Amino acid sequence: MLRTAHPPAPLPALPALLLAILSVQGGAAFAKVLFTQLGPVGATGLRIGLAAAVLSVIFRPALRRLTAAQWRALLPYGVVLGAMNLLYYLSLARIPLGLAVTLEFVGPLLLAAVTSRQRRDLLWVLLAALGVLLIAPWRGAGLDGLGMVLALLAGACWAGYIVLGGRVSQVVSSGVGVTTGMIVATLAVLPAVLISGAWTVVTPPLLGAGALLAVLSSAIPFTLELIALRTLPARTFSVLLSLEPVVAALFGWAVLHEVLRASQWAAVVLVMIASAGGAWTARQARAERPDPQTTSGPGV
């Protein structure tokens, strides 16, 4: 059975994912401005809604031409995308950023462990898990129970986003997939935004800051992640995402002058080793894959 080949990705998978992580952390610098004035629900709605608008102008998806099979992949992807962002921002209202990012990563980490097929994959997962535990600010104030539960639920949505995003990347182009997903996500969080009343305090400066946040934290990273999901296995993608709390810690040190403890620097090293190991595993798996031209029988 012949399969329609996808056009080559504009970026290789690994650079695309690394750029996505950097873009998310850059957008985090602007999130606090919106967060303090709009609250977590309002900031989520503005970020997702403006991202959907920007992406719609860029990619102009022909929604009416999408097939039923494509919609079956896109609808759950968009709903999970909206829930993930809303739960994450709600958790940030109750617990510190570092703890929220760390707890959210439990979802992708468990996904990597469940889908792992080789011992070397489990090694990278364990190293990443150890690094995440070391970098988390487990001591001190801010350990709000509900906030931690919300972060864990956001992590569960993150794991679902990885799986569903992989399916979306196989049925539509990255631009159409992420744009349609953001439109669905906007509709999914719209009731919460309307109930919160945050839309009544939106001003032109807030719209400008929201547009920048939408581009850095949603439009760019989600598009790049779909590109990465075309070729990276879900378990490798999950391990590489362990760079999220590491990059957040380094941004805090370089930009906010936050001092890292020795255990947190050890976490940085462990997570970077795990991410590099995950990339190496993916490359080795592709190198060991048999050539289809030499293994396919006649008539295939």
Automatic annotation (TrEMBL):
Keywords: Membrane, Transmembrane, Transmembrane helix. It is found in: Membrane. Pfam families: EamA. It comes from the Bacteria. The keyword Transmembrane applies. The keyword Signal does not apply. InterPro entries: AA-Vitamin_Transporters (IPR050638), EamA_dom (IPR000620), EmrE-like (IPR037185). Residues 146-275 form the EamA domain. This is DMT family transporter. Belongs to the EamA transporter family. Its main location: membrane. It is a multi-pass membrane protein. The chain crosses the membrane at residues 41-59, 71-89, 95-115, 122-140, 146-164, 176-199, 205-224, 236-256, 262-282.
